[in-house]
């Protein structure tokens, strides 16, 4: 029997099993069995190197966004609109057969947008180009799940399930469970929160299923069996997802309103002009989608200010609160690898500073559009005068702040 058939068989057994106190241990064990099989499914077949051609596209810019959806929902139309890179769009399904990269220029940052072939139910098990498409989704910083507003609302759930089956977790935080395998000493189980979904015995059974007999486990929140399995598997990817309902030009106003109220959702139409969309409540032109996308990515632009000079407002250093972090230390590492060692302190202007400028250490968390001057150990801080000259491309917020509190030094 193949792996997929075995998964199906266990899923059928779970569906047959009544959910109650007496069966919860058995169900937990079955969940672990499925998780193990799915991980096996993701491993490349033995002997084959790579296993067919993937969609290898080099990463570019400050972040990567993938367009995921059923065929003909308008992914390619959207890529062409947002990036100017042409991707063939047509009324028949599976128009796009490979990965087409485009670049979005927004807020002085560059974001790579990837158009992909449509996927269908069963994608995670290899239907169509499903596996390759999902691999690209996994490599991205944000997923835009494009949905056809006029089609079944079940599509959103079907695709979420396909992505979850390969270890993607959308709009979730990693579970607060500390887990460490040990060589000896048995299993030490601790919890700092009351647990209502799982207990010590069930944990032991799941660990037993994984043939783990020595480990340290600490639950810091009321996590579920699925959360615990995710932590043991350790290969899950936590990614933000925005559900983009396209084609709202062909549905009624009540449907538009209802879809717009779904969590993490935005409703758009590639066919509507801005003035038309103003008449539909909650409707966004695809351009407005950019602002939402940018917010979700948690990018932080930091402008470097050399001593006694203007910062360069055209060239931000782009950090991310989700990836890599956005402290003064992260900023220094972006600028030069020896800067952390040489820094005495940093002067920070902007929303993260309590007063302008604030003397900060390496651990200061920077916020979008902050200005940083690194004062090195050897240099003496001359406490210069001089304001920032108004700069044609300077972001408006900085110009405002400049009026209130001039950026001295
Ligand atoms: N009415 C309407 N049609 C749209 C909209 N956006 C795209 N379309 C049409 O929908 C059809 C499919 O668009 P594509 O961009 O090819 O869709 P896709 O998701 O890339 O399709 P595949 O590559 O086949 O998966 C085309 O005929 C588009 O013109 C929209 O907002 N409203
Ligand atoms: K199409
Ligand atoms: Mg397409």
UniProtKB/TrEMBL annotation:
GO terms for cellular component: cytoplasm
Region annotation Disordered: where it falls in the sequence: 376-409
InterPro entries cross-referenced by the UniProt entry: Beta-grasp_dom_sf (IPR012675), DRG (IPR045001), G_OBG (IPR031167), GTP-bd (IPR006073), GTP-binding_2 (IPR031662), GTP1-OBG_CS (IPR006074), P-loop_NTPase (IPR027417), Small_GTP-bd (IPR005225)
GO biological process: cytoplasmic translation
Skewed-composition ranges (Basic and acidic residues): 376-385, 398-409
Domain OBG-type G per the UniProt entry, residue ranges: 63-288
Classification via Pfam families: MMR_HSR1, MMR_HSR1_Xtn, TGS
Keywords assigned: GTP-binding, Nucleotide-binding
Domain TGS span(s) in chain numbering: 298-376
Keyword Transmembrane attached: no
MF (Gene Ontology): GDP binding; GTP binding; GTPase activity
Protein name: BnaC05g13580D protein
Organism name: Brassica napus
